[in-house]
Amino acid sequence: MVSPYATDFVTPLSSCPRCGELMSAAEALPGNSEGPPEPGCFTICGACAALLVFGQGLIVRQPTKDETDALDPEQRRRIVFGQNRVLAVHSHKEMPRG
Ligand SMILES: [Zn+2]
């Protein structure tokens, strides 16, 4: 399935630890560096908007409490922005057209 998001990077196939959605691409969060994701980068599940981290081999996992505690206010703002956008895309899809 083609992601509705721009700026996708191909990543190894892994699944969201929360909802099980298979992921093989990632989008840089707005304001992040333009490059492809690296281990330790945060990402957001395109299906359930869970906050995730790329681990070793770019397999996504849930962030630890230490990792989320270390987020600065600007990172939190970007994450919430990304999560809201995922949720908006899904609510838009489910809205009847016309
Ligand atoms: Zn998910």
Rg estimate, integer Å: 13 Å
pLDDT averaged residue by residue: 82
Helical/strand content category:
alpha+beta
Give me the count of strands.
5
- Characterize the main sheet: 3 strands, antiparallel
Could you spell the SSE succession in H and E letters? EEEEEHH
Span of the ends, CA to CA: 25 Å
Oligomer kind: single chain
Low confidence ranges: 1-5
Strand order of the largest sheet: 3-4-5
Number of domains: 1
Share of β-strand residues:
15-25%
C-alpha geometry: globular
Spell out which ligands are present. zinc ion
Structure description:
It is globular, with a radius of gyration of 13 Å. The longest helix has 22 residues, at 73-94. Strand 4 (51-54) and strand 5 form a beta hairpin. Strands 3-4-5 form a 3-stranded antiparallel beta sheet. Strands 1-2 form a two-stranded antiparallel sheet. It has one domain (8-93). The chain has 98 residues and is an alpha+beta fold. It is built from 2 helices and 5 strands, in the order βββββαα. The model is unreliable at 1-5 (pLDDT under 50). Zinc ion is lined by residues 16, 18-19, 21, 45, 47-48, 50.
